[in-house]
Structures are given as structure tokens and as C-alpha cells.
Write a structure and sequence with these properties.
The protein is an alpha+beta fold. The chain has six helices and five strands, in the order H-H-H-H-E-E-E-E-H-E-H. The strands form two sheets. It has a three-stranded mixed sheet, with no helix packed on it. A two-stranded antiparallel sheet has the order 1-2. Strand 1 and strand 2 form a beta hairpin. Helix 1 packs across helix 2. The radius of gyration is 17 Å and the shape is globular. The mean pLDDT is about 90.
Length: about 140
């Protein structure tokens, strides 16, 4: 982000589209910036206990819409979030340590679009998560 922290860049982006820079929102952005890897809503709530649950959820939703944070659904139905690497991508999710690795593949995306069209389906988006063991966990 060109020497600008995530929290500063996100605040600027939100202000540009008309959202105020409130202290609770800045606290959430700072907690996201300081997260060591993927995080949950509960992780954020624990980091900013004075910020209301609704503010945390609204902030995450806005950041997803701006593609600054991506949501990764897990097999158990829960979700984790991480800073987005930008652009459309998919995730490799380690079942042991929970690490998330983003990847892009134009051929996979083309096949998904092809299947949608074949079935007369108007595709508006998709996500793809692959579950298994990362290199580190496989080596243990």
C-alpha cells in the first residue's frame, strides 16, 4: 500500500465513498491490520471489546465490498477473514493449522463460467476453497 498502513488506506477509501472515520471503525481497522494471519469476527470482538458487534460486522461487510478483506468459508460453516490480495482468487485451506493460501487460475474460472452457461445459469460470482494439508503440516 505504498508505505501507507492498511488502516490508513482503508480509512481513506471509506471516507472517499462517504463513510465517516469514527473511533470505533478505526479501532476495528487497526485490529485487522495487527491480526497475525486469518481472523474471525470473534477474534476482532476480543481485540476491540469496547466496539459494538454491529459496528464490527458492518465494517467487515464494507471492507469485503471494497475487496480489501476477503471472506473464506470453512468446512464447518464458519468463516475466517484475511486481507485481500486483490482481484478474483481462490483459497487453499489447511485443515490442521488453518493457514490460507490464495491462488488464481484463469482456466478454472473459464470452466466454471462454461458450466454455468451450459446449464443456462447466469453466474454472478463464485468462491472456491480447497481443503487439505499445507506443506508444513504434511511434513510433520
Amino acid at each position: 500500500m505504498n508505505g501507507v498502513s492498511f488502516a490508513e488506506a482503508a480509512t481513506q477509501r471509506l471516507e472517499t465513498i462517504g463513510f465517516r472515520s469514527t473511533a470505533p471503525r478505526r479501532a476495528v481497522l487497526t485490529a485487522i491490520q495487527e491480526a497475525r494471519g486469518p481472523f474471525t469476527i470473534e477474534d476482532l470482538l476480543a481485540e476491540v471489546p469496547t466496539v459494538g458487534r454491529a459496528t464490527v460486522f458492518r465494517t467487515i461487510k464494507l471492507l469485503q465490498e471494497l475487496e480489501l478483506v476477503c471472506r473464506v468459508p470453512l468446512e464447518d460453516g464458519t468463516a475466517r477473514y484475511q486481507l485481500s490480495e486483490g482481484g478474483h482468487h481462490h483459497h487453499l485451506v489447511c485443515r490442521t493449522c488453518g493457514s490460507l493460501t490464495a491462488f488464481s487460475d484463469l482456466e478454472i474460472d473459464a470452466r466454471i463460467q462454461e458450466q454455468a452457461m451450459l446449464h443456462g445459469f447466469a453466474l454472478q460470482g463464485h468462491s472456491l476453497e480447497l481443503y487439505g494439508l499445507c506443506k508444513d503440516c504434511r511434513g510433520r
